[in-house]
Amino acid sequence: FPVMSTKAILTCRNMVTELILETCIALRDGREQNACTALSGIIAEAADNEALQAISCCLLVALRHRQRQLFTAWMQESRPRLEQLLVNPQLAHQGGSVLLRLTFAVCDRRLAEVRPMLALLVRRWLRTQADNTAMLQEFMGEWLSLAARMARRRWREETVFLLRETGRWLLMQQDLQRLAWSLQQLQLHFVVYARWDGFDKACRIYRELTLLYRLLLRRVPKAPPERQTALLQLLVRHLRDVTANVSRSAMLDDADIFRQLYSFFWQLTAENKRARDELLRLLQLAITYWQQTMPKTSRKQAVLLKDLLQPNLIDGQYALLLQKII
Fold it and tell me: Residues 203-246: pLDDT tens digits?
């Protein structure tokens, strides 16, 4: 392969810098066609180690100038080059940083038309980093923090987008440690929100979690035998810990939170019996696990929850697995 000289590399970098400046100045002066021409030059000519930052810089400048349609068009134009760059292992960290900046911008400006395109880019990068646990944890930590910010603003569509992409990624994970870490982060953000605005509002703004819980519960009996017990224990322990932390911050009994959760599940699934039975089964599993693993806390409160355990939905494989973890 030909090797570029130092002079050629500097010339290329200077060209990219000039094109970025031309894009920014043209947008400032209202010369949209000139800006588009400069961006096309960056997409076509910039070296891989410069292209990600250069393209993202131009995209964000377009948003700063409130050029929503132009931003959408530029995202579409640059998508093939971005897809190529995001699978480059040498640009892994840079790619994650660029995606997080673009995601914040798209959510902050509420660009619903760009979210599907952005989601495809994020999924592509996540697949490429499948073996890099440290990189994935850093990225998902920032992603979930962004979801919490959107939830705090009570921006429903943006929160749904971020949580659904989180759930999609989690359901693909075979590593239970990654799943446990992610659920712990979700628990942290959920509990903080509940402390601010109350448990019921936290359930509603984070209601995509109920879909994640249902899908994880469905996978328990279908998982390899060596994973079934661990997956069920991870799920019920998560719900038990969410309940315990919310009850402490709200100065309520755990039983009060379990009953509020029951009411929320019932209202959420009033027209979907299958979904209701799945969530109530999960709740019964969590209550039973809580009774057996926190006997001092549950001794006096358990009697208050007897009605939630009837009719008994813990049957078949779930009942056998529950006995192994309590």
Answer: 999 999 999 999 999 999 999 988 999 999 999 999 999 999 99
CA 169 to chain CA centroid, nearest Å: 8
List, for residues 274-314, the tens digit of each pLDDT value.
Answer: 999 999 999 999 999 999 999 888 888 988 899 999 999 99
Return the amino acid letter for 216. Answer: L
- Percent share of the chain, pLDDT over 70: 96
- What is the rounded distance in angstroms from the CA atom of residue 112 to the CA atom of residue 50? 28
State the amino acid at position 289 in one-letter form: Y
pTM of full prediction above 0.85: yes
Q: Percent of the chain, pLDDT > 90?
A: 79
Decide: 247 and 257 in contact? Cβ < 8 Å.
yes
CA atoms within 13 A on the CB side of 172: 12
